[in-house]
Amino acid sequence: MGGNISTFFSADTIRSILFYVGGQAKYIWGLKGNLDDLQTQKENLIAKKQDLLNKVKLAEQQPRIRRTTTVELWFKRLEEMETKVENLQKEGDQQVDRLCLGGFCSTDLISSYDFGKKVENLREKVIELKKEGEAIKEVYEGVPEGAAVEKAVDRTIVGQKSILDRVWRCITDQEKNEEIIGLYGMGGIGKTTLLKQVNNKFCSEEHDFDVVIWSVVSREPNMKQIQEDIGKRIGFSTDSWQGKSFEERASDITNTLKHKKFVLLLDDIWESEIDLTKLGVPLQTLDSGSRIVFTTRFEGTCGKMGADKNRFKVSYLGDDDAWKLFEGVVGRYVLDKLSDFPTLAKDMARQCHGLPLALKTVGYAMASKERPEEWKEAIEILSASASKFEGMEKKVLSSLKFSYDSLPKDELRSCLLYCCLFPEDCEIEKTELIEYWKSEGFVDSSSGWGVLGALVRACLLEEAGDRVKMHDMIHDMALWIANEVEEEEDNFLVRAGIGLTDAPKIEEWEGVKRISLMRNKIRSLPQIPTCPRLQTLLLNQKGKAQEKRNKKIHSHMWLHTSQYLSVQ
What's the CA gap between 219 and 555, in Å, rounded? Predict the structure, then answer.
């Protein structure tokens, strides 16, 4: 007989017995109806979820809006409830099949009773959860403004982790009293990218600063705009505040920032000193842990801004990091197409000499070129004249030229251009270079070292002990300026250090002001050139210059190969 119920009793008798047992029997005879109702309540709950979700998603399209914790928790509980209902419903058909006597009994009373009780309890919880959802009035809220506003950065950033970590330690180490921090380096080297990463660490790392302020200074600083950037970050952005005088706004900024622990990030300060006190920045609060971090192309600006101890030079990338950046910009799809020519892409990357701006510019230009012939041609163009390569003049050389243009004196600009007469990667003795400048009339006996120091501090020359060198991209920029931008004034013919055995064609000499054929293997000229404007001729092979400079050149200059092109 097992668990089977005898049909000896009539349905009415069984009904009476079940009612006598009590209301508990409803879990069995009401099972099918409860399962149907559970499905209905589940659908109602899902409909309510969709209503709230639509409101939340619409609101979240607005800036600085997020769903409330209450509604987020309700959604989470709803997902859990849906899973429980679905799992229970999977057993439903089996349990209904066990019912007998018109649904008033079961072939397995204990199992049907337990299951029916679960269905009823879960149905009540679904109804209650729906009521809770209907009671939620605020489904979204404004996001409180964090200490910093995140800045967009490039997808591929390499070679900056070490310096980023050092700068971050300077900012957050409150015991070392490092209030003002300067980041300097040549144009296009990645200073702005580094400063953006510093800013973004305040969005992801733990710190105790109240507010982080970002402002771009640029070559010709707009003090009013910088002041407005500061004011906006600390809550002054109304029209009435904008209508106040510069001095009144400065006072408001001071009175607010003196009660806060702040970080002021200033990007792209040039040689002009920024008077932060006039802007309203209370420098006295730096003693309490506030910080100022800035970027500049000029090391000298670090001193002017008070970054006496904490200045970091942002250098160009090494070969490995340069390749990672270039590879990330070009993309594997194109590079895989060149798999039979593995050195092509790396040769192209090396032509950028570790300058991130050049690597990205060249990388983007080559990202659509899949044929090896296109890459070979591009390498030849870039090697011969960087300015002729797609995007280099507009994006790279023009950017670097800002540093050249900002040099305060013509003598500085002339001395810089003169350095491109030397071969790429050439280390020039400082004393020898100053003597060259003197003989050209650019400097006198008392100003040579000052000029040299100014060019080094402007990151246009690099020091290497008792020598200096010009970065290859600065070398390309100087040649571009001399031959294309200021062609009427200068016009150089530079074929230095490239292993020539034959001199350039005679027609290339005409109209040229300065010529450098040093460190080649030229022994004679097939013809005597006509050089009415020539002032400088550098011909040495191993570093001791032979030249004819600064002499009044008349309509023709006759060069005797035995005198000027002999090999030492």
Answer: 42
